[in-house]
Amino acid sequence: MPYLANFSCPKEVIYQKSVRTLIVELERCDALGIPYLVTHLGSHLGKGREIGLERLIRAVNTAFDSSRSRTMLLLENTAGTKNSMGSSFEDIREILDHVAEKARVAVCFDTCHAFAAGYDLKDTESVGKTVAKLGEIIGLDLLKVVHVNDSKGKLGSRVDRHEHIGMGCIGEEGFKAILHAEVFRRLPLILETPIDTRRTDLMNLRRIRELAA
Question: Phi and psi dihedrals of 29, rounded to 5?
């Protein structure tokens, strides 16, 4: 989804534009045969979690009522920056529970966002615990796509800053554990790492393949 959309926004003009954008994107993806549309969940702009959740859930239900798209909407977990929605597995579960057409919505898991929100991924044991919690609260069957990014911020920092694979606070041991967890290995993995002089996209892809081997 375009980043400008904010489904939790208390400002009505922005909210209505965001819902219309979601409808258009669902239709566009359907026309192109794209199976998934990943979206961030927005910000309540200081109005509180309950208001943010109510508007977010209403936005998804309104879009589904207005579109017969076969594209599944994937809710992406967030890093927990100020006023943002969806940093906890519990928040995502609550949204899923209140979407009327449950077969049309699932989850995209971002490693950087999860780590920044306080879900440890630094080694095999911590990855196992986080996966178990994800399965218990959301359900591993609803996990469809993984955004594979290291984190510039420390565990629980709530800083949404992506880093090259193995060069951030998750580190190489963490990514070895992530890439050897069966739940992640079976899914599409999408890199969203930085573009700078230290490493190219191709170099990050090669590093992922080396760590997964």
Answer: -60, -40
- For the whole model, what pTM was predicted? 0.95
In the chain, DSSP assigns E strands to 36-39, 72-76, 105-110, 143-148, 150-151, 162-163, 189-191
> Which pLDDT value is given to residue 137?
98
How many whole angstroms separate alpha carbon 20 and alpha carbon 24? 6
Note the pLDDT tens digit of each residue in 110-119: 999 999 999 9
The Cα 145–Cα 182 span in angstroms is 13
Domain boundaries of the chain, sorted by first residue? 12-212
Identity of the residue numbered 126 = S
CATH node for 12-212 = 3.20.20.150
Low-confidence ranges of the chain (pLDDT < 70): none
